């Protein structure tokens, strides 16, 4: 029963993702005075969904490799390593976000990272 619910939720998300992708593609086509056929729209939506699934898997692996349970911006940038232009845009976006962050937030985060590093260097719990 639980698996059926999970499958229906996944199908609902996939359908919503497809509708959103098709809507974006239609808007871009209209903005550029182009027409895109239905089968091409469906193909674009399927490719975007498959890309997103792979991206999610990559982000999970990058975070696991770094010993974290959550993905962060560095993982997202790393996932774009095959596309230099995209990676550069993501780095720029990340830097813009960091620049907008209040100074007190940045200082607090840096000190908490140092504390985390000190804790992890002292205590080591091996995985079984």
Encode the helix/strand succession as letters. Answer: HHHHH
Please tell me the CATH architecture by its name: Orthogonal Bundle
How many angstroms separate the termini? 32 Å
Counting structural domains, the number is: 1
Average the pLDDT over all residues and give the rounded result.
Answer: 82
Salient structural properties:
Histone, subunit A, mainly alpha, single chain
List the topology elements.
Layout: H1 2-31, H2 38-65, H3 73-79, H4 84-100, H5 103-122
Task: Offer a quick outline of the entry.
By secondary structure, the protein is an all-alpha fold. It has helices at 2-31, 38-65, 73-79, 84-100, 103-122.
How would you sum up this structure, described in words?
There is one protein chain. This protein is mostly helical and 128 residues long. It has a single domain (2-100), classed as Histone, subunit A. The protein has helices at residues 2-31, 38-65, 73-79, 84-100, 103-122. The longest helix has 30 residues, at 2-31. InterPro entries: CENP-S/Mhf1, Histone-fold.
């Amino acid at each position: 029963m639980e698996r059926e619910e999970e499958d229906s939720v996944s199908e609902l998300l996939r359908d919503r993702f497809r509708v959103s992708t098709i809507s974006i593609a239609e808007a871009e086509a209209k903005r550029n005075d182009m027409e895109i056929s239905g089968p091409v729209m469906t193909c674009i939506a399927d490719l975007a969904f498959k890309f997103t699934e792979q991206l999610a898997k990559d982000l999970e692996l990058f975070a696991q490799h770094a010993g974290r349970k959550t993905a962060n911006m560095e993982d997202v940038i790393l996932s774009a390593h095959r596309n230099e232009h995209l990676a550069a845009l993501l780095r720029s976006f990340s830097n813009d976000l960091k620049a907008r962050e209040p100074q007190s937030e940045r200082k607090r985060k840096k000190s908490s990272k140092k504390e985390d590093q000190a804790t992890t260097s002292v205590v080591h719990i091996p995985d079984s």
